[in-house]
Amino acid sequence: METPKHFKCYNRQKVGILLIFSVGFGLFLQSSSSSSEETTCESSSNFNNSYCGFRKYIMKSYFEKYDSLLEPIFQNFIADELFNTCKLLPDNLKHLVRVSVPWRHLIGEGSHRQISTTIRFHMQSDSVSWLRAHFCKVIVIERLPTGVFADPFELQHLLKRGVFTDVAVFGDTNLELPSVLSNRSAVEIHMNVAPTSLVGHKNELEISADLPLHVRYPPLDDSGYSEVKFGEPEIFLSCSVEENGDHESCLLVPTKDRTGSRTDDVVWRIPSGIRVHAGIVSAVTFLAASISTLLIVLSSVFYPDNKLGNNPKES
């Protein structure tokens, strides 16, 4: 009578062992393919190690080397590790493509707003034919000032709706920290560019990006407001290039056109606590807490618990 039960139990154990073995083998294959992809990137790509390493996000490569976002270090990173990373890219192409930011402003009021940026590419005739023949996407890196953050979950909703091709937040992503305890973060946005949109009677391409942002709790200020300033974003073109059997995703850093760009910084004035009022609030809070504590003590002394006395005696 017990033999079929033992047989079923034995079969279940075999199935469980096979499932565990299959899952482990699948994870092994996944890790092997990932490592082989990195090896292929290192051996066959003409990129330097930094650009090849991130393969998708520039800021991921930056934060793998540095713990915090600092302007001098970031500019050196761009100049030293991202320039001239593609051998298939024409040498004069970056001078034939200029970029400007003619319009940049904040939308909305309060602590939850959007920074809207209009980006315009100016292309000479020699570069238009080259850009038409290759698939390109625009990469915008928004370096957020201290006191402002982007919600990664909110950006993922925009990504699912097709607003951006890719988007990610790097740096300090702790949404609960106040401004004085937080570090800077950066948002990297990818947007596809259709080859036909690069052609126009003015050889210009204009795109817009609206990034939702939120403020952290600001420090105290005598004026009652804390100001954060936004500088210009970093803008790149990433183009897929194939020549003589070699294929690369080349990163192009266009020349900045200062004449057509907005020169003043975008300023967000955030309401904050006034330093003079902090002492008054602390005193009132301490007084209210002391009175409440005293009332609780007096109530426990003069009005003891009489539940047992009020209950009728059990016979």
UniProtKB/TrEMBL annotation:
Which sequence ranges are marked TM in the entry? 280-303
Q: How does it sit in the membrane?
A: Single-pass membrane protein
Cite a single GO BP annotation.
GPI anchor biosynthetic process
Q: Where in the cell is it found?
A: Endoplasmic reticulum membrane
The record's Pfam families line, in alphabetical order, gives: PIG-X
UniProtKB keywords: Endoplasmic reticulum, Glycoprotein, GPI-anchor biosynthesis, Membrane, Transmembrane, Transmembrane helix
Pathway(s) it belongs to: Glycolipid biosynthesis; glycosylphosphatidylinositol-anchor biosynthesis
A GO cellular component term found in this entry reads: endoplasmic reticulum membrane
Family to which this protein belongs = Belongs to the PIGX family.
Protein name (record): Phosphatidylinositol-glycan biosynthesis class X protein
